[in-house]
Amino acid sequence: MTSSEADRSSRISGFHKLRVAERIDRVAAFAGLDDAQRAQLAVASNIDAELADHMIENMITTIAIPVGIATNLKVDGRDVLVPMATEESSVIAAVGNSARQCYESGGFVTSMSGTEMIAQIQLLDVPDPRRARLVILERRDEIAAICNACDPVLVRHGGGFRDLEVRIVETPTGTMVVTHLIVDTRDAMGANAVNTMAERLAPDIARWTGGRTLLRILSNLADRRIVRARATWTCAAIGGESVRDAMIAAYQFADNDPYRAATHNKGIMNGVSAVVLATGNDTRAVEAGAHAFAAATGRYRSLSSWEVTAEGDLAGSIELPMAVGLVGGAVKIHPTARALLAILRVEHAHELARIIAAVGLAQNFGAMRALATEGIQKGHMSLHAQNIAFAAGATGDEVGEVARRIIERQAIGEEAAARALAELRGGG
Ligand SMILES: CC(C)(COP(=O)([O-])OP(=O)([O-])OC[C@H]1O[C@@H](n2cnc3c(N)ncnc32)[C@H](O)[C@@H]1OP(=O)([O-])[O-])[C@@H](O)C(=O)NCCC(=O)NCCSC(=O)C[C@@](C)(O)CC(=O)[O-]
Ligand SMILES: NC(=O)C1=CN([C@@H]2O[C@H](COP(=O)(O)OP(=O)(O)OC[C@H]3O[C@@H](n4cnc5c(N)ncnc54)[C@H](OP(=O)(O)O)[C@@H]3O)[C@@H](O)[C@H]2O)C=CC1
């Protein structure tokens, strides 16, 4: 491998052993960041108060969440280093470790159903809802024109109105007629874009049908924006048939028991939400979509599937809605989100979505493998031990040493850490 090929490989062993500045250098070389982007990564408090005050209401301060880099991912044949914003230890280590174990077997293959969002318009007090439904459907061309006129920029980017659905929803307070505007929002998450269209169209719908429109808002069940990822881990890479079969049993548990599925999917979202947050996207929108999709069959299930291939290897796949954008919302204005997006080298929202799905699958593999073998505490708590050492007052080199002592004593708690720190400072 030449040095520039090495710079372009995500397969980096021991990245976690580098100093922070060395990690930034390595990532900057990998992604070809410019000086401003590199400088943006190097400051810990990276949003100025004036911008923050414009982003939200009643701003008083900011809370910094660490951003780490998941190594070893290959997505659709391309090596990527993935920024993840999370407060939870072991999350990023698990992704790097999982991706390492499928790197040689090809990494992750992904696809996406499209970038269409749904806006809903609720119509009440219609005496003849079935007739009203057809009246709305007959106006399809007019509706398309009204929607597209709301957002010429989106249309210029190849997006805009795509389709119309009208559903009858029976409720305890009466029958509602619910119009779905299906809009391709391209590189935008699209909430503001489709909400504008729904609000603009609602008075026409009321007039055409003689009913009363009420809510006009997007649906976070973005099931026309489904992202998919799959990967195969060879039996040899994961430690043999017994590990593979234990992981399948772990998956079956999740897919058939909602109590377990909630935790299993929370683990997937550890990875998904961390990339969504790092790139300035809306974590709540993606989380709502994921959990609604997991329950779409009427039973809350696993977002991932695991099976044994003809060769006896472990194949994993994941499908979930992924409403993320590269423009709009906070994405474009948060300087760190911009610099972190530059690391991913993506040009379109669907490329970002596909990387996020790969991270979700890797995260799920890591948690399931740990749970089905040594248990979660060994890996997770040994990394968490550093937080505990820090909380007990350790500083500098003391943090690593106190963490090492409490792991060795299998007493990973604050009291044990305080004792270890006192011993260390007393020369013990
Ligand atoms: C923690 C590991 C990875 C250790 O696993 P290990 O096998 O002891 O690791 P290792 O020391 O042999 O290193 C192997 C690779 O792991 C990565 N790695 C290793 N250490 C680090 C580190 N310090 N910083 C960054 N990366 C690290 C790194 O890629 C490294 O390769 P190298 O760079 O050395 O060539 C493993 O035990 C693991 O994946 N555990 C699972 C952790 C996890 O899932 N955490 C999520 C939080 S728990 C939760 O919220 C969700 C859950 C669990 O409830 C979901 C569910 O129930 O399904
Ligand atoms: N339930 C939910 O999830 C809700 C979420 N939100 C929030 O909405 C925000 C996201 O809305 P969104 O509509 O994406 O944001 P914006 O309205 O800020 O951005 C979308 C706009 O960007 C312009 N644009 C420029 N280039 C492109 C391109 N390549 N592809 C697509 N559009 C392009 C378009 O037109 P133009 O320049 O003319 O604007 C488009 O309308 C997030 O902050 C989210 O938190 C809001 C309400 C509810």
UniProtKB/TrEMBL annotation:
<dbReference type="InterPro" id="IPR009023">
    <property type="entry name" value="HMG_CoA_Rdtase_NAD(P)-bd_sf"/>
</dbReference>
<dbReference type="InterPro" id="IPR004553">
    <property type="entry name" value="HMG_CoA_Rdtase_bac-typ"/>
</dbReference>
<keyword id="KW-0560">Oxidoreductase</keyword>
<dbReference type="InterPro" id="IPR023076">
    <property type="entry name" value="HMG_CoA_Rdtase_CS"/>
</dbReference>
<dbReference type="InterPro" id="IPR009029">
    <property type="entry name" value="HMG_CoA_Rdtase_sub-bd_dom_sf"/>
</dbReference>
<dbReference type="GO" id="GO:0140643">
    <property type="term" value="F:hydroxymethylglutaryl-CoA reductase (NADH) activity"/>
</dbReference>
<keyword id="KW-0520">NAD</keyword>
<dbReference type="InterPro" id="IPR023074">
    <property type="entry name" value="HMG_CoA_Rdtase_cat_sf"/>
</dbReference>
<protein>
    <recommendedName>
        <fullName>3-hydroxy-3-methylglutaryl coenzyme A reductase</fullName>
        <ecNumber>1.1.1.88</ecNumber>
    </recommendedName>
</protein>
<comment type="pathway">
    <text>Metabolic intermediate metabolism; (R)-mevalonate degradation; (S)-3-hydroxy-3-methylglutaryl-CoA from (R)-mevalonate: step 1/1.</text>
</comment>
<dbReference type="Pfam" id="PF00368">
    <property type="entry name" value="HMG-CoA_red"/>
</dbReference>
<comment type="similarity">
    <text>Belongs to the HMG-CoA reductase family.</text>
</comment>
<dbReference type="InterPro" id="IPR002202">
    <property type="entry name" value="HMG_CoA_Rdtase"/>
</dbReference>
